[in-house]
Amino acid sequence: ITDLKAAMAAKIPKEQERLRELRKECGPKALGACTVEQAIGGMRGIPAMLWETSLLDPEEGIRFRGHTIPELEEKLPSAKEGGEPIPEGLLWLLMTGEMPTVDQAKAMPTVDQAKAVTELLRERSKVPDHVFKVLRDLHPNTHPMTQLCQAVLALQVDSKFAADYRAGIHKSKYWEPVFEDSINLIAKLPTIAAAIYRNTYKGGELIEADPKLDWAANLSHMMGGFGRVSSRTLNKIGVDGAANLSHMMGYDDEGCLEMMRLYQTIHADHEGGNVSAHATHLVGSALSDPYLSFTAGMTGLAGPLHGLANQEVLRWLNEVRAEVGDNVTKEQMKEFVWATLKSGKVVPGFGHAVLRKTDPRYTCQAGFAARNMPDYPLYKLVALLYDVVPDILIQTGKVKNPWPNVDAHSGVLLQYYGITEENFYTVLFGVSRALGVLSQG
Ligand code: CMX
Q1: Is 281 exposed, middle or buried, given 0-12, 13-18 or 19+ CB atoms closer than 10 A?
Q2: Where would I find the H helices in 290-405?
Q3: How much is the average pLDDT of 397-409?
Q4: pLDDT > 80? residue 31
Q5: Which strands make up the sheet holding 54-57, listed edge to edge?
Q6: pTM recorded for the entire structure
Q7: What does the DSSP 8-state code read for residue 308?
């Protein structure tokens, strides 16, 4: 079976029954106590939400339907052999709870579930003109995350759930229009994100999707890909010309496409307690449709202590470079970190409300950087931060987790491939987060 909705339809009645049973058998049981500090701290550490798509272990990090990040890198299908995982495979896993079947040999495409998701999303990717108009009419200084929220709200006019609810749909069938809205929204997000990028930074000229590319690679392409280079051209350019290659191809560079696939996979879900997931879930519980609920999540992701931290990390690194140049010593870096703390600011990209070790999403991106950009100065700078920051945060005596989180590394990968506009980074995070929070819906 490669039809995602049919796979869901086969599971949903059993899941509904499982939930009824759970309630009946365990309903009155207590999950734990709640302290005053936890209440003040915004429910930190209180097991108070059902979240099935992923589980966050403080020591081990995130597991998506039971699979760690390294396992996902190994098991999820990829666009090229041995390459990075594609988010379509993750979406199948998150929604159905099962690893998608793959057809890496390309012999039987009809059994390739991840590929079927790619096609499903492609079919529904067309964004109505009125959404582009909304984006064009916004104040030019509107932050890309605010633009994302406005565009998603503009799409809400087509909500199937809202229409079916008005028509009196039975509650046991809610999942169907929620599924339709979720897939429609996920399918359109790359085009919307690319339009925001092109409008804000590239004069507004949009780039058409490439029907041969997968979901995440198309996002990269529509942001500014200038075409993939044939092997004949590659041979002509030869090794000496390789440095110019990325420049010529823009974000169609193979490395950039792979980076985007990985990026979109690992940012998808982080259990239900974080602000974007919780907000989406909370608003959804009022039976607000997926467009409204996801927008609530995105307004939360736009906060500097959550998703906007990836933008803040880049700003902060650029301040370091402006002050001391690229060849920063350990001592200079220490001084800079202390100065940040003394001025009453946080060190962005470090710390976490739940994690107590280095975020495996950080480690995974560091691995990608080591493989693809080992000599890149910004990568070295981030590696230096890893050496310096945790010790200092420990010395403050109050930071519970001194280790880096996902946002400490993502900007470096984007910068390397020429996506230098850090104000846009959280939009890329948001596109990925849709996979997780809408699957849980
Ligand atoms: N730099 C400076 N101080 C920090 C810190 C950091 N990176 N991380 C925590 N602290 C401080 C807190 O501000 C708090 O100080 P006060 O008691 O004066 O208020 C104290 O240490 C205790 O905080 P905590 O219990 O360790 O952490 P919280 O659960 O309160 O906050 C988080 C978690 C992520 C908001 C925090 O670590 C932080 O602000 N980090 C920097 C921003 C960041 O990288 N956010 C992205 C997180 C990942 C994501 O959601 O995308």
Answers
A1: buried
A2: 290-301, 309-324, 330-342, 360-372, 377-396
A3: 97
A4: yes
A5: 54-57, 61-64, 67-68
A6: 0.94
A7: T
Give distance in angstroms: CA of 399 to centre of ligand 1.
7
CA of 353 to the centre of ligand 1 (A): 7
Q: Decide if 67 is catalytic.
A: no
How many C-beta neighbours within 10 Å does residue 288 have? 19
Identical fold for domains 129-302+425-440 and 309-416, yes or no, is no
The minimum-distance atom of ligand 1 relative to the CA of 429 is 51
pLDDT at res. 232? 63
Ligand 1 nearest-atom number relative to CA 345:
2
Assigned CATH for 4-122 = 1.10.580.10
- The residue assigned the tokens 């301040």 is 319
The residues, any chain, with a CB within 8 Å of residue 150's CB and separated by 6 or more, are 134, 135, 138, 142
Residue 238 has pLDDT above 70, yes or no: no
* CB atoms inside a 10 Å sphere around CB 156: 18
pLDDT, one tens digit per residue, over 195-206 is 999 999 999 999
Q: Cα–Cα distance between 310 and 288 in angstroms, integer?
A: 29
The pair of structure tokens assigned to 212 is: 């041969």
pLDDT of 159 higher than 80? yes
Domain range annotation of the chain: 4-122, 129-302+425-440, 309-416
Q: What is 309-416's CATH number, 1.10.230.10, 1.10.285.10, 2.60.40.640, 2.70.98.40? A: 1.10.230.10
Q: How far away, in angstroms, is 333 Cα from ligand 1 center?
A: 20
Catalytic residue of the set 267, 278, 281, 352: 352
Cβ atoms of residues 201 and 136 within 8 Å: no
More confident residue, 51 or 327: 51
Is 107 a residue whose pLDDT tops 60? Answer: no
**Residue 55 φ/ψ, nearest 5 degrees:** -135, 130
Q: What residues does 54 pair with on adjacent strands? A: 64
Q: Superfamily for 129-302+425-440?
A: Citrate Synthase, domain 1 (1.10.580.10)
